[in-house]
Amino acid sequence: MAQLQTLQTTQKEATSSLLASFIIALFCLLLHLLLAQHISVLDGHFNFLLIACIVISFRHNSASLTWIGLLLGFMYDCLSSTSFGAMMLCFSLLFYLLSRGDRQAFKESFSYAFVRACLAIIVLEFVYAILLLTLGLDTSFLSSIYMRIVPNILMNCLLMLPVCFLMSGASFNRIGRSNKRANTRGLRFRS
Amino acid sequence: MPLRSAYRNKKAFSGKKTRRINAGLFSLILSCLVSLACIQLYSTEGDTGFLHRVKSFSQSAVSPISRVGAFISSPFRSKAETSRASLSSESVQELEEQNTKLRRAVEELEEYKQESERLRGLLQLSSAYQLQSSAARVIGRSLDAWSRTITIDKGSSNGFSSGMPVLNSYGLIGQIEQLNANNAVVRLISDEKSGVSAMIQSNRAAGILRGSADGSLRLEYITTDAEVKPGDVVITSGMGGVYPKGLPIGEVISVERSAASLYYNIVVRPPRASASYEEVLVITKLNDPDKQPIASSPSEADNQAADEQAGRLQVDPSAQSAQSVQAAQQEGPVLQEQPQGSE
Question: Distance between alpha carbon A2 and the CA centroid of its chain, in Å?
Answer without folding.
Answer: 36
